Amino acid sequence: MTISLIRNGTLIDGTGSLPVPDAGVLISENHIQAVGRADGLSLPDPPITEIDACGGHILPGFIDTHVHVTIEGINIARDMATPFSLRFYKSVEYMRRTVEAGITSVRDAGGADAGTKQAVDGGVVLGPRMQISITPLTITGGHGDFWMRSGDEFHVFPSHPGLPDGRCDGTDGVLVKVREVLRAGAEVIKICATGGVMSPTDHPDFTQFSPEELAVIVREAAYRGGIKVMAHAQGTEGIKNAVRAGIHSIEHGIYLDDEAIELMLEHGTFLVPTMIAPIAVLEAGEEGGMAEHAVTKARQVVEAQAESFRRAHSAGVKIAMGTDAGVLPHGTNLRELGLMVDAGMTPMEAIAATTRTAAECLGWQDRLGTLEAGKLADIVITRTDPLGDIRSLDDTDNILVVIKDGETVKDRRKQAR
Ligand SMILES: [Zn+2]
């Protein structure tokens, strides 16, 4: 049995409790055996492998609850000319960058199929632990429908044997589509309950799917061992419809009003803010291949989104960190934490949203999200103190060590000395 001890670092355990200096984390195989002050841990007889945290900070592996590991940027001209299979090879690099940023678990909000997940779980490629949705369900002409008014079809997530087309309409149509994505291996159902920034023929404020359709989707998913539904929901009415229907998490949540916040509190709905996403669209700009309609809409939503976040947070809505990585470059995910702090969270709250609360959003709180005895050994060691400088996490060179499932998958300590 392999036993390792991480020492010489300050512990931030993900629960939101005060940091523990001179901490130790004892790892047995792929589980955490004990956590606390290093001099207070009862150590088994040698041999123990020591992992020197180099005076840095020891945290749970970070969790991003909204990524797309199979895409990076949406450039219609480029993507229409790209060979189909190249996306799979490229996603290998995206997933490696995600892990090297300290993200050891993700929820894929569309694009990753069962084979992508199996490739990671089977050790074929390095990537984060994944909860997958296969493809987002969308109404015809909705956020997930990239039919262009030229008459051509663009597919952000082209359908293939592992990934059915996501378009569906009417209570019968959505029922069949939920069953199709479940058959393909969906572990969470992703739907588009409103329009959005990237889509060519709608607007973030447009309501999509009727309350009747939403009810069918939520009920059918629940029948299959309690599968949850995550909703891309930006406009106020679509957000409220989704929350009332029993949707588990509101993605983006750009236009929240008081009633929407009340409803979310009442239903225990998670908010996954993705404030970095429209900023990344603006940074890439039309020069970076973003469509003109996307840049225009991104500019319209940035401030509203931060304001909604501020109000949801002060009202006590559960907030799980999510970025929409894929719209932004993979590996830049932790920039979201700086934005969360700008919009009213303390650095400790932003970290808890990226660890404990994110694990709850995925339903994985029993095995991940905090550094406690019995949990899986997903651990990050940072060179800097994220409580003193949350934006130091933006630089992946400050992510010194990443341990996933007890295995060290990144180690930059030599270069740091
Ligand atoms: Zn997304």
Written account of the structure:
- This protein has 417 residues and is an alpha/beta fold.
- It has two domains: 106 residues, Urease, subunit C, domain 1 (Roll), CATH 2.30.40.10; 272 residues, Metal-dependent hydrolases (TIM Barrel), CATH 3.20.20.140.
- The chain is 32% helix and 20% strand.
- It is built from 13 helices and 16 strands.
- Strands 1, 2, 3, 4, 5, 14, 15 and 16 form an eight-stranded mixed sheet that branches.
- α5 runs parallel beside α6, α8 packs antiparallel against α9 and α11 packs parallel to α12.
- The radius of gyration is 21 Å and the shape is globular.
- It starts with a strand and ends with a helix.
- The mean pLDDT is 95.
- Bound molecules: zinc ion.
- Zinc ion binds next to loops.
- The site of zinc ion has 4 residues, from loops.
The major pleated sheet works out as: 8 strands, mixed
Calculate the mean pLDDT score and round it.
95
Helix content bin: 25-40%
Distance between the termini: 30 Å
What are the salient characteristics of this protein?
417 residues; alpha/beta; Urease, subunit C, domain 1; TIM Barrel; eight-stranded mixed beta sheet; 16 strands; globular; binds zinc ion
